[in-house]
């Protein structure tokens, strides 16, 4: 009984029907995902169709979304299982060597895409000419930074990620006497000047009392950003320092003093500090003569890494990124009249897998078609002789 | 007898090549003026040095949709036209070259719509320039996708009028007494204002960089005059230009040709090599290898069609010979582009169409060599013809050898990723075309011929394997390029998705066949569907207007794509048509 079920499951996973159904489903998903990008932006559409197990759709008549289509992750998972089952099923003979390589390569390619989907971290680094930067910032995620700026030569940064702020309640900041009481968190909000006569703000300190705040739905399009905001009350030594409004949309720093320490409160894009620093020595924006058509962008960067006793110059330009300590730095954008260079930073532990897969699959296809060609030529030869 | 036939067939091919050669010969002088010599002058425009002839052809193509026009009973070529625009605007302004098809735009300029195409001269339009500009600037605030038909038409007209206006004011300000007078009035109080206008309106730079200057620092006439005003010695090219200007206005051909000779020696001293490069490009322009190629393909296809009902022994080899000569012209054109541009073959949508056609023709030639049934010739000549027609239509938007934007500026990846993926397109289209031939043949030829059918299916199958290989490798190479330049292997960008669809579909066909779910007919229906997917991935992405690959949105392209899909659906229906159409045909013994 168990054996038949197991063999049935085995037969299911290695069947050609499954392969074809999954490939066609994947094609449908790709088409849907492409069309949805016009509305939702690339990232939004990819999350909805490709990185999800089930595609959910909101119907106006129903309060909750309904599953309408298997998502890319599910199809991908089944396709991987199908591939593995098939690969194991292919006879280990020289005749099938090509097919074996192709399918093994595809398994690696899928694994690479899964690793990228799960583990890839995209950040960026903006440096102005002459500036030294030792952190990368997230594109979308935010954090509340509490910076002890008492020492003019050294900032001590403590930060609370937005995911923790969203839970609310008191958060003790390790290393400081401060406990942060999160009163309200807005994943996205719009700020404006508080009109006269409006109900007073929850904030009692800093710029908050003069600002009106309206919660907004989350946005996902590529060129839009969520303005994360929160009301927080820092407590230390048994006293409250008032309720402060912090928001990505607020530019001016707000600070309070506790026992001689000056603390700055600021909501900003989440930063990751690096054990090394980049100094931008030169940024170049070349155009074709007599036009505005960009020819090349390049950043000349001094990389200083004390732990490796390393200090060297690197030129990062189009199609020529810097791979350093598990991160890859690309020339992505520029600004401020060509004095600001923006490098996009990617950390993907599986970046090599597609390269391996490409070699395996190409080799496999070549081997297989060579075998088939040889067989068919032989058959022709036999026909002629016979 | 067969010997004679063979020579007749190859004679036809050689005759076609001779015609191609004849087209490339230089034309005569217009009214005694060496206009083609003038077209040979190198200029800097759009970031690259090219002959004035290329600019004249592309501008005329943009404004007039053709590279020449008939005026007062005589053909005016691009070089003569641009000379008139720049030196005798009063003559050029009267030539009716602006094509306007939109009835609302015609109404706007207060004219009646005529029966045929509607051509207007700059003089016709000149009293409505303010209105055109106002309407166009309103329209141009909208995204191209959201513009109405009128808005697209008026903004397009404005761009063409503005191009013409700039050309008119590049070498001299239209309406002024000319370049010679401009040089004489250097140092007067009003001159700097005119220099500013000339600098602003200059469409190209004709004066090569002076000795010791930055090698890319070509100057426009306005820039050189302005420099002379501030005390720099007069650019040596200005004097011969002024002489040409005066001679052309005075209708003195000998003096013009003499001044052109002087200009040529100035150019070859200041920028050795530029003149030769420009001359080569002019030969390429004149030869129009892709237009000649598509004409030969068309004749080859017709010849083959006739061969099915008349003298197959003679006409089939003739069609094959014609296809070969078409392929030779096509290949030479492709090679010339690669050499002139210094880039791999595919750099933009236009060149991708040329390359897809070339790949399909070469594959078709190989298939014909293997099976010798005429189908390879038919499919290859038709595919070559169709893709070159597409290319001709894509090439009406300006310079087809435009410079590559920064991220694309990588010959290595253009040569590997772009070329392999385009070969994948060629293969999928060729397989689809063979499937269409199979479907039509089944219905037209009453007699069942299992051997030919089997051969066609084998061809399609082999080509699908071939395109799966190339489209897969091309897609993965694209991923690696993306990893090198944007930091991710795969980003679900529309163009990437399009390429993935082709790979997936070819994989579906092969798996369905291996598993035995489809046989001959099913494979062929699926191969035709491959045409739809490839067309969507090739052009549809540009229509969506999102993503990193969305270069060149073409508004009329959408309906062409829909039309193409519709025909493919019809072919799929024909291929799948009811069994009684072919299954029960008696296997008549011949």
> What gap, in angstroms, lies between the N and C termini of chain A?
52 Å
Number-wise, the strands of chain A total 19
Q: Write down the domain tally of chain B.
A: 2
How many helices of chain B?
Answer: 24
Explain the overall architecture.
The complex is a heterodimer of chains A (386) and B (590). Chain A is an alpha+beta fold and 386 residues long. Chain A has three domains: 2-119 and 352-385, no CATH class; 123-131 and 275-346, no CATH class; 135-272, no CATH class. Chain A is 33% helix and 39% strand. Chain A has six helices and 19 strands. In chain A, strands 3, 4, 5, 13, 14, 15, 16, 17, 18 and 19 form a ten-stranded antiparallel beta sheet that branches. In chain A, strands 6, 7, 10, 11 and 12 form a five-stranded antiparallel beta sheet that branches. A two-stranded antiparallel ribbon of chain A has the order 1-2. In chain A, strand 6 (169-172) and strand 7 form a beta hairpin. In chain A, helix 4 packs antiparallel against helix 6 (353-385). The model of chain A has no long low-confidence stretch (mean pLDDT 86). Chain B has 590 residues and is mainly alpha-helical. Chain B folds into two domains: 28-271, no CATH class; 343-581, no CATH class. Chain B is 67% helix and 4% strand. Chain B contains 24 helices and six strands. Chain B has a two-stranded antiparallel ribbon with strand order 1-2. In chain B, strands 3-4 form a two-stranded antiparallel ribbon. Chain B has a two-stranded antiparallel sheet with strand order 5-6. In chain B, strand 3 (69-71) and strand 4 form a beta hairpin. The longest helix of chain B has 36 residues, at 450-485. Chain B is elongated. In chain B, 49% of the residues are buried. The model of chain B is unreliable at 584-590 (pLDDT under 50). The interface between A and B is large, with 57 and 58 residues.
Which descriptors would you attach to this protein?
heterodimer; A: about 375 residues; alpha+beta; 3 domains; ten-stranded antiparallel beta sheet; five-stranded antiparallel beta sheet; globular; B: about 600 residues; mainly alpha; 2 domains; two-stranded antiparallel sheet; two-stranded antiparallel ribbon; 24 helices; about 65% helix; about 5% strand; elongated; Cytochrome c assembly protein domain-containing protein (chain B)
């Amino acid at each position: 009984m168990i054996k038949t079920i197991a063999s049935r499951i085995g037969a299911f996973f290695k069947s050609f029907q499954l392969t074809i159904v999954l490939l066609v489903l994947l094609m449908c998903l790709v088409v849907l995902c492409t069309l949805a990008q016009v509305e939702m932006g690339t990232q939004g559409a990819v999350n909805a169709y490709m990185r999800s197990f089930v595609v959910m759709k909101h119907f106006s008549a129903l309060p909750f979304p309904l599953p309408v289509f298997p998502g890319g992750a599910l199809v991908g998972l089944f396709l991987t299982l199908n591939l593995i089952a098939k690969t194991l099923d292919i006879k280990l003979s020289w005749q099938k060597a090509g097919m074996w390589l192709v399918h093994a390569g595809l398994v690696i390619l899928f694994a690479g895409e899964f690793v990228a989907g799960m583990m890839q971290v995209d950040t960026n680094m903006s440096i102005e000419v002459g500036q030294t930067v030792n952190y990368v910032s997230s594109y979308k995620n935010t954090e509340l930074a509490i910076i002890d700026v008492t020492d003019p030569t050294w900032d001590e940064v403590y930060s609370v990620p937005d995911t923790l702020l969203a839970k609310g309640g008191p958060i003790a900041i390790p290393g400081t006497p401060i406990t942060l009481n999160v009163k309200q968190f807005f994943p996205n909000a719009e700020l404006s000047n508080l009109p006269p006569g409006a109900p007073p703000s929850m904030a009692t300190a800093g710029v908050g009392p003069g600002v009106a705040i309206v919660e907004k739905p989350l946005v996902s399009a590529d060129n839009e950003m969520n303005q994360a905001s929160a009301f927080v009350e820092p407590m230390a030594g048994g006293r409250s320092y008032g309720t402060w409004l912090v928001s990505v949309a607020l530019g001016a720093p707000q600070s309070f003093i506790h026992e001689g320490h000056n603390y700055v409160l600021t909501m900003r894009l989440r930063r990751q500090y690096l054990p090394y620093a980049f100094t931008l020595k030169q940024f170049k924006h070349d155009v074709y003569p007599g036009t505005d058509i960009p020819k090349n962008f390049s950043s000349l960067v001094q990389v200083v890494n004390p732990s490796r006793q390393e200090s060297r110059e690197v030129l990062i330009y189009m199609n020529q990124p810097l791979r350093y300590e598990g991160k890859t730095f690309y020339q992505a954008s520029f600004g401020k009249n060509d004095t600001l260079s923006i490098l996009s930073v990617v950390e993907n532990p599986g970046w090599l897998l597609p390269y391996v897969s490409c070699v395996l699959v190409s080799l496999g296809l070549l081997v297989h078609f060579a075998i088939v060609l040889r067989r068919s030529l032989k058959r022709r030869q036999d026909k002629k002789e016979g | 007898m067969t010997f004679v036939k063979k020579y007749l067939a190859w004679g036809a091919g050689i005759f076609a090549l001779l015609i191609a050669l004849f087209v490339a010969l230089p034309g005569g002088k217009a009214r005694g003026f060496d206009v083609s010599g003038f077209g040979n002058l190198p200029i800097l425009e759009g970031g690259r040095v090219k002959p004035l002839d290329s600019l004249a052809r592309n501008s005329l193509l943009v404004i007039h949709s053709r590279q020449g026009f008939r005026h007062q009973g005589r053909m005016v070529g691009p070089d003569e036209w641009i000379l008139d625009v720049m030196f005798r605007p009063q003559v050029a302004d009267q030539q009716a070259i602006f094509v306007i098809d939109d009835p609302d735009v015609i109404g706007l300029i207060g004219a009646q719509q005529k029966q045929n195409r509607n051509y207007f001269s700059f003089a016709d339009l000149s009293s409505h320039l303010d209105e055109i500009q106002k309407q166009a600037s309103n329209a141009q605030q909208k995204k191209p996708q959201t513009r109405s038909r009128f808005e697209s038409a008026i903004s397009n007209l404005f761009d063409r009028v503005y191009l013409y206006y700039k050309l008119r004011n590049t070498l001299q300000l239209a309406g002024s007494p000319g370049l010679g007078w401009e040089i004489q009035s250097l140092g007067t109080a009003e001159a700097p204002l005119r220099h500013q206008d000339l600098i602003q309106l200059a469409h190209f730079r004709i004066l090569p960089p002076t000795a010791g200057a930055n090698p890319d620092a070509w100057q426009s006439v306005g820039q050189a005059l302005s420099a002379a005003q501030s005390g720099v010695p007069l650019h040596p090219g200005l004097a011969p230009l002024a002489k040409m200007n005066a001679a052309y206005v005075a209708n003195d051909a000998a003096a013009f040709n003499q001044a052109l000779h002087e200009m040529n020696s100035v150019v070859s001293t200041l920028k050795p090599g530029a003149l030769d490069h420009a001359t080569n490009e002019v030969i390429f322009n004149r030869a129009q290898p892709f237009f000649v190629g598509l004409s030969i393909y068309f004749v080859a296809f017709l010849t083959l069609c006739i061969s099915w009902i008349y003298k197959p022994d003679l006409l089939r080899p003739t069609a094959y010979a014609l296809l070969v000569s078409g392929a030779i012209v096509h290949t030479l054109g492709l090679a010339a582009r690669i050499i002139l541009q210094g880039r791999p073959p595919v750099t933009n949508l236009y060149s991708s169409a040329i390359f897809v056609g070339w790949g399909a023709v070469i594959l078709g030639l190989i298939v014909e060599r293997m099976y010798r049934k005429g189908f390879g010739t038919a499919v290859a000549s038709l595919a070559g013809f169709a893709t070159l027609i597409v290319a001709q239509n894509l090439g009406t938007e300006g310079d087809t050898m435009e410079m590559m934007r920064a991220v694309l500026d990588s010959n290595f990846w253009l040569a590997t990723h772009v070329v392999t993926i385009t070969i994948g397109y060629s293969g999928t289209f060729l397989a689809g075309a063979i499937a269409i031939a199979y479907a039509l043949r089944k219905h037209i030829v009453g007699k069942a011929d299992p051997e030919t059918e089997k051969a066609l299916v084998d061809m399609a199958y082999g080509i699908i394997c071939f395109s799966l290989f190339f489209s897969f490798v091309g897609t993965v190479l694209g991923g690696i390029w993306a990893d090198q330049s944007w930091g991710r292997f795969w980003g679900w960008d529309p163009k990437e998705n399009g390429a993935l669809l082709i790979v997936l579909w070819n994989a579906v066909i092969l798996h369905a066949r291996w598993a035995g779910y489809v046989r001959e007919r099913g494979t062929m229906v699926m191969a035709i569907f491959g045409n739809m997917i490839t067309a969507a991935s090739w052009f549809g992405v540009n229509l969506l207007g999102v993503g990193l690959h969305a270069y060149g949105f073409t508004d009329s392209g959408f309906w062409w794509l829909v039309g193409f899909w519709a025909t493919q659906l019809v072919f799929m229906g024909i291929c799948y048509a009811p069994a009684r159409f072919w299954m029960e045909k008696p296997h008549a013994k011949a």
